[in-house]
Design brief:
Mean pLDDT: 96
CATH superfamily of the largest domain: tm_1862 like domain
Low-confidence stretches: none
Strand order of the largest sheet: 2-1-3-4-5-6
Oligomer: single chain
Radius of gyration: 22 Å
Number of domains: 3
């Protein structure tokens, strides 16, 4: 049976889709990533925003257009939040939530709804189907933070960590040029098992793969963590979640740190890894954000000199602590997002310019328009001339800014 597994949302969802594909193929099915013609569609849904939930429902209609007689199986966060929104859609045969997603291989012929209780410990055992260029390895699930704007802890459950030995086994088995360690909040890794992120990195010492991290919280940036990262083939790119550069807004968000504490983490990173890329997420217009509060955010992001910023207008989410609080006018949110977007572009150009004339190791990912494309360890996108192949790490001399990154020549 041909099964198409389509993923919406985060990299953790993408990894879990790879687990589903691996399990289906092991059971004798022909399973592939993407929304392509198939007998059965497994839709791995997202519910981080109302828009993500809407797109998850729309994916059912897209599947039906590819095969009007298909079966559609729904899994993931949108199903966890509200299974009934899918159960009554034509062609949907089975709905499952977040827990035990890979069991779908045994349930693909079933009908009905089965949203299981979320687990209290990390219990997954199936390795995800991986690519040779970049592997994503899940090390943690769930979240204990309960930020006032976020629905995720209610859908994913409490934080639970994978054992270091299991992570190391999957990293070694993947044989990818680069491995990204991901989770819902990897900053909490090991707190429930008695292990830690530094222990994990020390255990990965000697692996050939480049190690890249998913999103981190600033409060976990310690000297011990940075020293352990220096022991592996680490990509010095830190995605430190900020959300606001104003302490008053951070308090309303229940973010549990101040801008001073965040900046201290930035300084520690740059002392240990001087060329590191520091990227972040910022929400604008959160619950009555004033002009002065937004100005503080703009000032702070300029102070940090981020390599890139993902800018999001605040979207109220039913079921969160902030839902129903004073919202900001939508036109003002758009205006602020555009203003911060301009700052982002200036900072991004400045970061790129810092690499001009240098030689960088680039992981080749694809060829487009006669040029190869890939990423440096700092996650700078580089377009370059010269012979290469997908998955190869090559030395490239960075010559000039180009499109969304830089252009260079292979040495």
């Amino acid at each position: 049976m041909k099964v198409a597994v389509f993923t919406l949302g985060c990299k953790t969802n993408l990894y879990e889709s790879g687990q589903i594909i691996a399990a289906l193929n092991a059971a004798g099915h022909q399973a592939v990533h993407g929304l392509v013609p198939a007998d059965v569609f497994v839709l791995n849904t997202c519910a981080v925003t109302g828009e993500a939930e809407r797109k998850s429902r729309q994916a059912v209609q897209r599947a039906r257009k590819l095969n009007p007689n298909c079966k559609v199986v729904i899994v993931g966060c949108a199903a966890e939040k509200n299974a009934r929104q899918f159960a009554e859609i034509e062609n949907v045969t089975f709905v499952k939530g977040v827990a035990n997603k890979t069991a779908i291989v045994d349930e693909i012929e079933k009908r009905g709804v089965d949203v299981e209780q979320l687990p209290s410990v990390f219990a997954e055992s199936i390795f995800s189907a991986q690519e040779r260029t970049r592997a994503f390895v899940k090390i943690q699930d769930g979240c204990n933070n309960f930020c006032s704007y976020c629905i995720v802890p209610y859908l994913r459950g409490r934080s639970r960590s994978r054992l270091v030995a299991d992570v190391v086994r999957e990293v070694r088995q993947a044989h990818s040029a680069e491995t990204v360690l991901i989770g819902i909040d990897i900053s909490q890794f090991g707190k429930d098992t008695g292990e830690s992120l530094p222990e994990l990195f020390r255990a990965l010492k000697g692996t050939d793969t480049r190690i890249r991290l998913g999103s981190l919280e600033a409060r976990v940036i310690t000297d011990e963590l940075l020293e352990s990262l220096a022991e592996v083939n680490f990509c010095p790119h830190f995605h430190l979640s900020l959300q606001s550069g104003c302490d008053a807004v951070l308090a309303r968000m229940n973010r549990k740190y101040t801008t001073a504490q965040y900046y201290d983490a930035v300084c520690k990173i740059r002392k240990a890894f001087p060329t590191a890329a520091i990227t972040t997420d910022v929400i604008v217009g959160f619950c009555g954000e004033t002009d002065d509060e937004f100005a503080e955010t703009c000032s702070f992001v300029n102070k940090v000199k981020f390599a890139d910023i993902h800018v999001f207008p605040y979207s109220p989410r039913e079921g969160t602590a902030a839902f129903g609080l004073q919202d900001t006018d939508s036109a003002l949110k758009t205006q602020r997002a555009e203003a911060l977007g301009q700052i982002k572009q200036q900072l991004k150009r400045s970061f790129t310019n810092g690499f001009l004339g240098t030689t960088q190791q680039v992981l080749t990912e694809r060829k487009r328009g006669g040029l190869w494309e890939g990423y440096t360890k700092e996650y700078l996108r580089v377009h370059f001339d010269g012979a290469s192949s997908v998955g190869e790490v090559v030395n490239v001399q960075i010559k000039e800014p180009f499109e969304d990154g830089a252009k260079g020549v292979k040495l």
